[in-house]
Write a sequence for this structure.
C-alpha cells in the first residue's frame, strides 16, 4: 500500500508510507512505535542529544538517531532489538547517575514525569555508573514562579530551545561544556534581570522537573489526586487552551494544552501563573454599594443589582445608550464574560464592550 | 590609538564571520572580555546576550576576568605531563593548565598572551622557532615536506623559487576545474585531518552542489593531542597551504576561503597574515588570480580554545558565531556548510599536498606510497622516543621502521611499551600490535586508526593507567556536552580511571567500563564520542594486570571532582 506520494520504507518488517521531509521518528510514531526520547519535543527542531531514539538502518555502521534522520525511500528500519534496548538502558542508567533524584512531583510541570517513566520502563534504577552529579541548582534566584533545580538537569536543552524557538525570548542558554554544562542566563544572573518573560514554556517542556512550577508545587502536600479540566485562558483574546489542575476544590496550577489550537502549548505569564486570585482571602464574597457618605458597604445582591440598574438606566436616559462602556475582567470566568457582552450588546444596545487586557 | 568598541564592531561587520575576530580584538584590547563589551557585541551583532554569553564560556581561552588574557597557560597534555608540566604550573604563579597545545616535540609550551614560550623550568622559559621536520632517510621522497627545509621558503620569493604558485597559475590559465578534479581523484589523495575522505570526491560534491556562494575552509584547528604537523607546515611553508586553499577554491568554484587556526598558535597567525598579504600584493590571490579574472579571497579566523571546533560541523558553527556544537548529519557540509552554502572543509596537510600533485602528477603522488597505498602521511611523533618530530612517511611504512630506524628508537636503556594512534583518538597499540604498517586498513584491523597521524610513545617506566586517565580527562574536558553518551560517558570513564568512583569489584568495574565504551561508540553524535572509548578499551585489552591492580588499590569517594 502506498499513498499518492508513493514513498515507502520498511519499518520493523512492514512496508509503510511516508511523506518527504518526515523523520524516521515521525514515521515510526505515526505507526504506533513507542520509541523512547528525552530531548524531543515535537514543537522544536529535532536536536539529537539524548540518543534514546536510535534505530537500526540496514547498511549503516551504527544505529542512527531517528529524530534527526530523514526517512528515505527503501530504508529498512528496526526500532527495537536487543542491542538497541541495551544501549537505551545504559543511556538511562547514565542519566540516572548524574541527577540528585529521579522522582519529582507531577506538579513540577507538564513533561516532568518523562524521565521517571522511562527509567521505570527500562528498569534502569540499578545504581550503576555512580559518580559526580551534574548541574548546579540556583536556590538564590528569588523569582516566585520558576524553580531552577539544576542538580536534576540532564542537559537536554529543551528549555533553551523552547525559549528561543517557541517563545522567541532567548533568555537562557548553555554555559560551559561537557559534564560542566549548565543552563544559565546572561552572566549567570537571576531570571528577573534577564530577557525572561516568565511564560513558563521551559518549565513545561523540562523532562525531569529540574525546572519546576513553584506556584503549583506549593500544593504538593495536599494528598489528593490531581484532576485536569480543559478550559480557555480568560485573560485575552488569543484563546490559549489550558488545563486547570485541581486537588479537590483547590486550584493548584495551570498547564498549557499541548494540543490547544491557538497556542500549541504556549502561554504567557498571566495565563500560566496568575491564578491566585481565585482562592485569595481578599476576594469579595458579597456585593458592595456606596452609602450616602460615599463609603462602600456590604449588601445583598438584590439591593446591589437594583442600584446598578437604576444608575445605568439614568445614564442611558440622560446621555443615550452609547454613553456606556463596559470592561469585562480577565479574571472573570469565560461564561461571565460571555453574559457581560450579551448584556451590553443586547441589553443596553451598544457595542462598547472590551476586555481588561486590551482596555 | 585604541579603537572604541563601536569602531571595532563597525569594522567587524564589514567582514564575513565577524564574531570571533571581534571577540579577539576586544579580548586583546582589554585583556579580557568585559560584561560591557559583551553587551555591546550583542547589540552590534544582533545576537541574543544569553546566547553570546553561553558561547563565550564554551571557549577555554576567552577570559572574563580582568588580566585573564595574560595569565600564563601551561600545556598539561600527555607528553608535557611526562616532562613535569604539573610541577611547572605550581611553580608559575597564577598559571593554569591547558590541553595539549601542539608542541609535543619541544619542551613544555607556556602561552603568555600572544606568545608561546617553551621550557622545562619556571626560570628557563624562552621563545623558540618551530622545529623543522628531521630530514628523511636516504632515498625517501616527500610531498608536503619536499621543500620545507629550503632557505627562505617562508617568504613569497623563496617559495616561488622552487616552483611555488606554478600549480595555481597552471590551474587558472591552462586547466579546467574538471581536469583539476580528475587529477585529484586520480591521485588517490584522501583527507589528512582524521576521517580520510577522498578529497576529489568532496570537491566534486561541492562543485556539483546547487546554491552558493561556495566556500572552502582550511581546518587548522589541530587540537588532537600529539599532533603538531599542521603547525610545522604553516610556520615553515605558509604559501604551500595558501596555494592549496586557492586550488581548492578553483576546483570547487568557491571565491572565498577561511583558515580556522587554533588559538594556541599565535605566532602562526602572523606568518599566515603576512603570507596572505604578500600573495595578494603580487596579484596571486585576490580579485584577479594570475590575471585570470578569478577571485580568491582568504580570511583568517582564530579559534579560542576548544578541541571540538576541529570537528568540521562544530568548526562551521564556530565560524558562524553560533554555539559550537557539532551539527546533525546529513546534510553534510558539501551541500549545507558555512551559512548553509556548499563548503569543502579540508585539513592543512591535505591542502598542502595539492600543489605538488598538480605539478608532478597523480601517478607521482600515488607512487609515493608503498604497495597499494597512495601518497604520504605526516606523522607527529613524540614522547619516549630518541628523535621526536614530524616525519612524512610513505603510506604503508611499518610502524617499527619509523620508530626504530627513522626516529632512533626509545630512550636509551628503555623499551617501548605502547604507542597511541591518531593522537589520542585511536587509543593504544602495544605488544605484537606494534607490527602494523602505517595505513588505515592495517591499523583498523587492530581496532584503532591512523587518523591525523599523531603517535605518542610510552616506555616501560610509564604508568599506563595514569596515561589513560589523563587522556580520558582530556576527552571529558573537551566533550561539547551536546549528546548524553559522550557528556556523561567521558566523565564516568575518567572517574573510573582515576579511581575516584565506580565499583570496587573487578568484574563490575570491567562491566561498567565495557558498557560505557560500547554505548559511546555506537550512539554518540560525533567523532569525539566514537573515539574516546578506544583509550579505555585498549587499556583493558593490553594491560589487564595493571587495570586489576588499579581497581584493587584505588580509594573511592563518589562526588570527587575528577
Ligand atoms: C573531535 C574531532 C576533532 C577534529 N579535529 C580536527 C582538526 O583539528 N583538524 C582537522 O583537519 N580535522 C579535524 N577533524 C576532522 C574534521 O572533522 C574533518 O574530517 C576534516 O577537517 C576534513 O578534512 P580532510 O578531509 O582534509 O581530512 C576532527 C574531527 C573530530 C571528530
Ligand atoms: S519562562 Fe519563558 S521566557 Fe523565561 S526562560 Fe522560560 S521559556 Fe524563556
Ligand atoms: S533544565 Fe530541564 S529542560 Fe533544561 S536542559 Fe535541564 S533537564 Fe532539559
Ligand atoms: S560525541 Fe561528545 S563531542 Fe560529539 S556531539 Fe556528543 S558530546 Fe559533543
Ligand atoms: S530524541 Fe533523538 S536524540 Fe533525543
Amino acid at each position: 500500500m502506498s499513498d499518492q506520494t508513493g514513498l515507502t520504507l520498511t519499518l520493523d518488517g512492514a512496508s509503510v508510507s511516508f511523506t518527504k521531509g518526515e523523520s524516521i521518528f515521525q514515521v515510526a510514531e505515526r505507526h504506533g512505535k513507542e520509541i523512547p526520547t528525552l530531548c524531543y519535543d515535537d514543537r522544536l527542531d529535532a536536536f539529537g542529544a539524548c540518543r534514546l531514539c536510535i534505530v537500526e538502518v540496514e547498511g549503516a555502521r551504527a544505529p542512527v538517531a531517528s529524530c534527526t534522520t530523514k526517512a528515505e525511500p527503501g530504508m529498512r528500519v528496526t526500532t527495537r532489538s536487543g542491542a538497541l534496548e541495551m544501549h537505551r538502558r545504559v543511556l538511562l542508567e547514565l542519566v540516572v547517575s548524574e541527577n540528585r533524584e529521579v522522582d519529582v512531583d507531577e506538579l513540577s510541570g507538564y513533561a516532568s514525569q518523562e524521565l521517571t517513566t522511562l527509567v521505570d520502563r527500562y528498569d534502569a534504577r540499578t545504581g550503576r555508573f555512580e559518580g559526580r552529579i551534574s548541574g548546579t541548582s540556583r536556590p538564590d534566584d528569588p523569582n516566585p514562579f520558576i524553580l531552577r533545580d539544576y542538580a536534576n538537569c540532564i542537559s537536554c536543552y529543551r528549555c533553551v530551545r523552547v525559549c528561543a524557538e517557541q517563545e522567541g525570548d532567548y533568555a537562557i542558554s548553555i554555559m560551559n561544556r561537557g559534564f560542566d554544562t549548565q543552563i544559565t542566563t546572561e552572566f549567570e544572573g537571576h531570571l528577573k534581570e534577564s530577557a525572561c518573560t516568565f511564560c513558563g514554556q521551559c518549565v513545561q517542556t523540562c523532562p525531569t522537573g529540574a525546572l519546576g512550577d513553584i506556584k503549583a508545587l506549593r500544593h504538593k502536600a495536599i494528598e489528593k489526586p490531581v484532576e485536569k479540566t480543559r478550559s480557555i485562558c480568560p485573560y485575552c483574546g488569543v484563546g490559549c487552551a489550558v488545563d486547570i489542575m485541581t486537588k479537590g476544590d483547590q486550584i493548584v496550577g495551570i498547564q498549557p494544552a499541548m494540543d490547544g489550537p491557538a497556542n500549541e502549548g504556549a502561554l504567557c505569564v498571566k495565563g500560566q501563573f496568575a491564578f491566585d486570585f481565585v482562592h485569595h482571602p481578599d476576594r469579595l464574597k458579597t456585593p458592595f454599594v456606596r452609602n450616602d457618605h460615599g463609603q462602600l458597604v456590604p449588601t445583598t445582591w438584590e439591593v446591589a443589582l437594583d442600584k446598578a440598574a437604576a444608575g445605568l438606566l439614568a445614564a442611558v436616559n440622560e446621555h443615550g445608550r452609547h454613553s456606556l462602556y463596559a470592561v469585562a475582567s480577565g479574571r472573570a470566568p469565560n461564561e461571565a464574560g460571555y453574559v457581560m457582552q450579551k448584556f451590553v450588546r443586547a441589553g443596553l444596545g451598544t457595542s462598547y464592550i472590551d476586555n481588561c487586557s486590551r482596555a | 590609538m585604541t579603537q572604541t568598541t563601536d569602531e571595532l564592531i563597525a569594522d567587524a561587520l564589514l567582514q564575513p564571520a565577524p564574531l570571533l575576530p571581534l571577540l579577539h580584538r576586544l579580548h586583546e584590547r582589554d585583556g579580557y572580555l568585559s560584561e560591557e563589551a559583551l553587551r555591546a557585541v550583542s547589540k552590534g551583532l544582533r545576537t541574543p546576550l544569553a546566547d553570546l554569553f553561553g558561547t563565550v564560556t564554551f571557549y577555554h581561552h576567552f577570559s572574563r576576568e580582568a588580566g585573564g588574557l595574560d595569565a600564563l597557560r601551561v600545556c598539561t597534555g600527555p607528553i608535557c605531563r611526562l616532562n613535569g608540566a604539573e610541577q611547572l604550573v605550581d611553580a608559575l604563579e597564577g598559571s593554569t593548565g591547558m590541553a595539549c597545545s601542539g608542541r609535543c616535540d619541544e619542551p613544555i609550551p607556556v602561552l603568555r598572551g600572544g606568545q608561546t614560550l617553551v621550557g622545562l623550568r619556571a626560570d628557563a622559559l624562552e621563545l623558540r622557532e618551530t622545529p623543522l621536520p628531521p630530514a628523511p632517510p636516504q632515498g625517501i621522497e616527500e610531498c608536503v615536506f619536499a621543500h620545507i627545509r629550503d632557505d627562505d621558503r617562508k617568504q613569497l620569493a623563496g617559495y616561488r623559487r622552487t616552483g611555488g604558485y606554478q600549480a595555481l597559475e597552471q590551474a587558472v590559465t591552462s586547466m579546467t576545474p574538471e581536469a583539476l578534479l580528475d587529477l585529484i581523484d586520480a591521485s588517490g589523495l584522501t583527507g589528512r585531518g582524521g576521517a580520510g575522505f577522498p578529497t576529489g570526491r568532496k570537491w566534486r560534491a561541492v562543485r556539483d552542489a546547487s546554491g552558493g556562494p561556495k566556500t572552502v575552509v582550511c581546518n587548522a584547528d589541530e587540537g588532537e593531542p600529539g599532533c603538531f604537523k599542521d603547525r610545522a607546515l604553516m610556520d615553515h611553508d605558509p604559501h604551500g597551504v595558501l596555494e592549496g586553499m586557492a586550488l581548492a577554491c578553483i576546483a570547487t568554484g568557491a571565491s572565498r576561503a577561511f583558515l580556522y587556526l587554533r588559538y594556541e598558535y599565535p605566532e602562526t597567525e602572523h606568518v599566515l597574515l603576512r603570507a596572505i598579504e604578500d600573495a595578494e600584493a603580487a596579484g596571486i590571490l585576490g580579485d584577479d588570480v594570475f590575471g585570470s579574472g578569478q577571485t580568491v579571497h582568504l580570511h583568517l579566523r582564530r579559534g579560542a580554545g576548544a578541541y571540538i571546533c576541529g570537528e568540521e560541523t562544530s568548526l562551521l558553527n564556530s565560524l558562524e558565531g553560533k554555539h559550537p556544537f557539532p551539527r546533525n548529519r546529513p546534510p553534510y557540509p558539501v551541500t549545507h556548510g558555512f551559512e548553509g552554502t556548499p563548503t569543502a572543509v579540508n585539513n592543512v596537510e591535505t591542502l598542502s599536498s595539492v600543489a605538488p600533485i598538480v605539478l608532478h602528477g597523480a601517478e607521482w603522488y600515488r607512487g609515493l606510497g608503498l604497495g597499494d597505498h597512495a601518497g604520504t602521511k605526516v606523522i607527529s611523533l613524540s614522547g619516549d622516543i630518541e628523535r621526536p618530530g614530524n616525519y612524512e612517511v610513505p603510506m604503508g611504512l611499518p610502524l617499527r621502521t619509523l620508530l626504530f630506524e627513522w626516529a632512533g628508537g626509545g630512550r636509551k636503556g628503555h623499551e617501548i611499551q605502547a604507542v597511541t594512534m591518531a593522537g589520542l583518538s585511536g587509543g593504544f597499540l602495544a605488544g605484537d600490535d606494534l607490527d602494523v604498517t602505517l595505513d588505515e586498513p592495517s591499523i583498523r584491523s587492530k581496532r584503532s586508526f591512523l587518523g591525523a597521524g599523531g603517535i605518542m610513545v610510552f616506555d616501560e617506566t610509564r604508568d599506563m593507567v595514569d596515561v589513560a586517565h589523563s587522556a580520558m580527562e582530556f576527552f571529558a574536558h573537551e566533550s561539547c556536552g551536546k549528546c548524553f553518551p559522550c557528556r556523561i560517558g567521558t566523565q564516568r570513564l575518567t572517574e573510573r580511571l582515576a579511581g575516584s568512583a565506580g565499583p570496587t569489584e573487578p568484574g563490575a568495574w570491567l562491566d561498567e567500563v565495557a558498557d560505557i565504551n560500547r554505548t559511546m561508540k555506537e550512539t554518540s553524535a560525533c567523532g569525539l564520542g566514537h573515539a574516546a572509548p578506544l583509550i579505555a578499551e585498549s587499556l583493558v585489552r593490553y594491560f589487564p594486570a595493571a587495570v586489576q591492580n588499579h581497581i584493587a588499590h584505588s580509594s573511592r569517594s563518589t562526588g570527587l571532582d575528577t
